[in-house]
């Protein structure tokens, strides 16, 4: 979340928050969060320090505490933390000080903090005027030397001062960033540095040795519960304290608030419960916490090892409905431990026994979409697979198949776990190389960890009587990894899952400083000899690429190889004159930049993907699948690549009124007809002089809704459980070609296709121009109904049709687990979207959109 937006809202015209970072400051025995914003006005700069609510979305969520001008005498210095548990292991602690005031703050280690400190170091040393800052109409106290002209337009306009907080302005301060803070803020990544680093990686074995460290890895699906019991039986099982703790949770919070707004107080509850239960024979520092809805991952390291942790980055990937919602997906923390790169992934994959293909797809999505910034901006982002050690934990949700509940329980009672594992979906999918290829899982010698009655060790006695399964798993990939234990922990009973843990001895590459220095010097000497000897040049295996029959949301990939000559080279795809990006929106080169040693080569993937933002112009023919890529070599020449393709038009991305005038499938129509109907203004659609009257609603929409009405009214978790991508492609083809009278695919796939269809509409069902009016009358049904009655006829028909369908679904809420709040939240964000250029909706706007739809789900309406 870009929290500079909240700060920007507190500033008057002429002042800009260039970047904001969230950190923590000590407050007695506890720590408190602060937002630091780098504010610019007229070439002058200051750091604005704010207290804030848990989620700082708007100006209403932040309170200005102090302003620290960047002027002569200003300093940012690294401080050595005192080592207690509030120390963020590899996070950087800095003291920002001036003559009259100061602040010691812990900032999260990573690329964003580096950028923040870099921006601070670049700022001018002249004082920033912060005169006339007002808080609730009152002027803040300012120190002598600062003007109190209340007309200053750089002052915050809405920020509120908490009663107990006083703000005293500091007078002056010299930009003097020291030691680690300097390294973090001003990295130098020229070609020479990149060459040296690459050569060091190539010769790593000559200056490192392997040393074993003990890792504890744990996973626990807590079923939305708070920590009512100690976690010591899980986290302190072994007598030997681990060097590193990797602790993951799923279903941390099952509330609608967490699902739709990613906000939960349970993050702090479980963090404290873990911290209090770590092994007592060692002192630990928290390295990082990352959470996506209910999926949370914590990383701790022994305090005396914290200095050996570096390059910490986090990532999140949602794989829930529409491929985004965070109720399912993964979070990850990557870091370097000494000279070994480690990636820890915590995932919660799709539920239900029959959905193993969806789980496979979730795994692949997490692997392809999870990316981590590198400290060197000239290098492409890292993926999960680009690490020496990968530890993957979580509720993977793979089940036991072909056996009934009685047989499974019998085999469990007999402790016949090897036999039972033969029916385990994960084992079968791994054997088929469909998922987790190259990963290892230890022998399972404990009973299934799901599903239990909460509060005891009895199997599920509910009406569903779930078949027991090993949902909760831990796998690994890499060299020098020895699993010492793999077990469940029956003593914990608050959830319907049992926690699982594994302890590993992992061989980590430790640097011998003397050998490292010798290798480094050899590389530099050899580099001195060859520098400026030649101009770099490469050979491309292919320069022309054609993508045949491109379809909506169906990825196509073409590959080519760059082979380097005898000079190290840095390459990057660069933008053409008068263009902002190096390629069109529907294309990406992966990687788009990188470094090649002499004689080496790299495979580049050109990925073509048409989505909602590009489909409409391709449907109409206003845009073509044509582009020229420019591959630039640092100190070398440019290479030009031609990319072409043909796009098959789709109902996805087509306007509602266009589809209402199409009685034939869109791919049976001529390109000219599609163009004319797509470009026809919405205002003309009601009065269009067509030979045939337009359809009341698009036939494609009717097919999907009718299918769901007939087949899915009682479908459990409808609109919450994702479908399969392969089935979406079948549904799309059926709608675009009119191949079948009935749609192919599961109910979940049809439901997701409906949501994707609504999301792809270039003009939403409730037209953009009514957006603000809808939010203003979200609690007034009469005014809301009047807005709907003013929609263009085809849009009004679609809205009424969808509301009638959703009300029918709610009549079966006892079976399908839907309620009015779920449907209002999902459809509120699709039917009522902010117009282009409008800021991303904050929580308040999302709730108003939800409330607007909520009204129509509770009342039978007839607006015609």
Primary descriptors:
single chain; 864 residues; alpha+beta; PH-domain like; Deoxyribonuclease I, Chain A; Immunoglobulin-like; 4 domains; six-stranded mixed sheet; five-stranded mixed sheet; 28% helix
How would you sum up this structure in a few lines?
The protein has 864 residues and is α+β, with helices and mostly antiparallel strands. The chain is 28% helix and 26% strand. It has four domains: 3-125, Roll (PH-domain like); 206-511, Endonuclease/exonuclease/phosphatase (Deoxyribonuclease I, Chain A); 538-647, Immunoglobulin-like (Sandwich); 763-863, Phosphatidylinositol 3-kinase, Chain A (Orthogonal Bundle).
- Beta-strand residue percentage: 25-35%
Structural class: alpha+beta
How far is the first residue's CA from the last residue's CA?
42 Å
Instruction: Quickly count the helices.
Output: 25
CATH class of the largest domain: Alpha Beta
How are strands sequenced across the largest beta sheet? 12-13-11-10-22-21
Cα shape: globular
Contiguous low-pLDDT stretches (5 residues minimum) are: 83-89, 125-188
Query: In the CATH classification, which architecture of the largest domain applies?
Result: 4-Layer Sandwich
Helix content: 25-40%
Tally of domains: 4
Q: What does the main sheet amount to?
A: 6 strands, mixed
Overview of this protein structure:
It holds the Pfam family OCRL-like_ASH. Residues 150-164 have a biased composition (Basic and acidic residues). It is an enzyme of class 3 (hydrolase). The chain is of the alpha+beta class. The chain folds into four domains: 3-125, Roll (PH-domain like), CATH 2.30.29.110; 206-511, Endonuclease/exonuclease/phosphatase (Deoxyribonuclease I, Chain A); 538-647, Immunoglobulin-like (Sandwich); 763-863, Rho GTPase activation protein (Phosphatidylinositol 3-kinase, Chain A, Orthogonal Bundle). The protein is built from 25 helices and 31 strands. The strands form eight sheets. Strands 12-13-11-10-22-21 form a six-stranded mixed sheet. Helix 18 (725-737) crosses helix 19.
């Amino acid at each position: 979340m870009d929290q500079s937006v909240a700060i920007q809202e507190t500033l008057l015209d002429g002042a800009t928050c260039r970047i904001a970072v969230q950190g923590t400051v000590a407050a007695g025995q506890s720590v408190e969060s602060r937002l630091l914003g780098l504010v610019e006005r007229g070439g002058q700069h200051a750091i604005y320090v704010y207290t804030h609510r848990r989620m700082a979305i708007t100006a209403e969520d932040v309170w200005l505490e102090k302003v620290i001008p960047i002027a002569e005498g200003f300093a940012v210095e690294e401080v050595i933390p005192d080592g207690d548990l509030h120390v963020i292991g590899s996070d950087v602690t800095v003291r920002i000080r001036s003559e009259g005031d100061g602040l010691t703050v812990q900032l999260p280690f990573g690329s964003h903090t580096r950028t923040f400190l870099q921006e601070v170091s670049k700022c001018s040393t002249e004082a920033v005027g912060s005169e006339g800052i007002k808080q609730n109409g009152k002027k803040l106290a300012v120190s002598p030397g600062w003007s109190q002209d209340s007309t200053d337009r750089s002052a915050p306009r809405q920020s509120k001062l908490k009663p107990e907080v006083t703000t005293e302005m500091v007078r002056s301060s010299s930009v003097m960033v020291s030691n680690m803070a300097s390294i973090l803020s001003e990295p130098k990544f020229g070609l020479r540095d990149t060459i040296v680093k690459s050569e060091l990686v190539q010769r790593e074995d000559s200056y490192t040795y392997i040393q074993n460290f003990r890792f504890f890895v744990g996973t626990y699906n807590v079923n939305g519960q708070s920590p009512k019991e100690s976690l010591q039986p899980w986290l302190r099982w072994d007598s030997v304290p681990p060097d590193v703790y990797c602790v993951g949770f799923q279903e941390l919070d099952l509330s609608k608030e967490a699902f739709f707004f990613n906000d939960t107080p349970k993050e702090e509850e479980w963090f404290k419960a873990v911290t209090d239960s770590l092994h007592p024979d060692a002192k630990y520092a928290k390295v990082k916490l990352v959470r996506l809805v209910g999926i949370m991952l914590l990383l701790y390291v022994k305090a005396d090892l914290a200095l050996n942790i570096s390059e910490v980055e986090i990532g999140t990937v949602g794989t829930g409905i529409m491929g985004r919602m965070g109720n399912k997906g993964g979070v990850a923390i990557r870091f370097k431990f000494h000279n070994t790169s480690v990636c820890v992934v915590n995932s919660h994959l799709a539920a239900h026994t029959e959905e193993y293909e969806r789980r496979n797809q979730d795994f692949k999505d997490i692997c392809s979409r999870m990316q981590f910034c590198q400290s060197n901006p000239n290098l492409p982002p890292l993926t999960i697979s680009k690490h020496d050690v990968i530890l993957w934990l979580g509720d993977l949700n793979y089940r036991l198949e072909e056996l009934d509940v009685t047989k499974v329980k019998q085999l469990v009672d007999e402790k016949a776990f090897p036999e039972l594992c033969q029916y385990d979906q994960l084992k079968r999918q791994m054997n088929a190389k469909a998922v987790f290829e190259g990963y290892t899982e230890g022998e399972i010698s404990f009973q299934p960890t799901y599903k239990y009655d909460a509060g005891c060790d009895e199997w599920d006695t509910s009406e569903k009587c779930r078949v027991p399964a090993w949902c909760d798993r831990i796998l690994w990939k890499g060299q020098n990894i020895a699993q010492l234990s793999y077990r469940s922990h029956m003593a914990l009973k608050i959830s319907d899952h049992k926690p699982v843990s594994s302890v590993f001895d992992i061989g980590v590459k430790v640097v011998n400083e003397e050998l490292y220095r010798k290798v480094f010097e050899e590389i530099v000497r050899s580099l001195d000899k060859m520098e400026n000897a030649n101009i770099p040049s490469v050979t491309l295996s292919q320069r022309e690429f054609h993508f045949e029959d491109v379809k909506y949301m169906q990825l196509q990939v073409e590959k080519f190889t760059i082979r380097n000559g005898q000079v190290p080279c840095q390459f990057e795809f660069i933008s053409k004159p008068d263009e902002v990006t190096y390629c069109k929106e529907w294309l990406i080169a992966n990687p788009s930049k990188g470094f090649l040693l002499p004689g080496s080569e790299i495979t580049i993937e050109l990925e073509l993907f048409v989505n909602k933002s590009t489909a409409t112009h391709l449907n109409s023919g206003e845009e073509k699948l044509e582009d020229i890529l420019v591959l630039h070599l640092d100190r070398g020449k440019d290479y030009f690549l031609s990319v072409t393709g043909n796009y098959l038009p789709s109902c996805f991305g087509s306007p509602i009124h266009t589809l209402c005038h199409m009685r034939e499938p869109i791919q049976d129509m001529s390109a000219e007809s599609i163009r004319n109907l797509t470009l026809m203004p919405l205002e003309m659609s009601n009065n269009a002089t067509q030979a045939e009257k337009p359809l009341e609603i698009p036939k494609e929409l009717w097919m999907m809704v009718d299918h769901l009405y007939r087949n899915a009214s009682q479908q459990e978790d409808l609109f919450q459980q994702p479908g399969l991508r392969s089935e979406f492609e079948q549904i799309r083809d059926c709608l675009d070609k009119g191949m079948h009278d009935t749609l192919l695919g599961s109910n979940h796939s049809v439901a997701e296709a409906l949501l994707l269809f609504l999301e792809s509409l270039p003009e939403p069902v409730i037209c953009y121009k009514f957006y603000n009016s809808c939010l203003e009358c979200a609690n007034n049904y009469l005014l809301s109904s009047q807005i709907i009655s003013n929609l263009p006829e085809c849009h009004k028909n679609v809205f009424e049709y969808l509301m009638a369908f959703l009300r029918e679904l709610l009549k079966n809420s006892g079976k399908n687990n839907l309620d009015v709040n779920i449907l209002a939240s999902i459809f509120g964000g699709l039917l009522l979207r902010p117009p282009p250029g409008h800021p991303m909706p904050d929580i308040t706007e999302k709730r108003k959109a939800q409330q607007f739809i909520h009204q129509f789900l509770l009342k039978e309406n007839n607006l015609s």
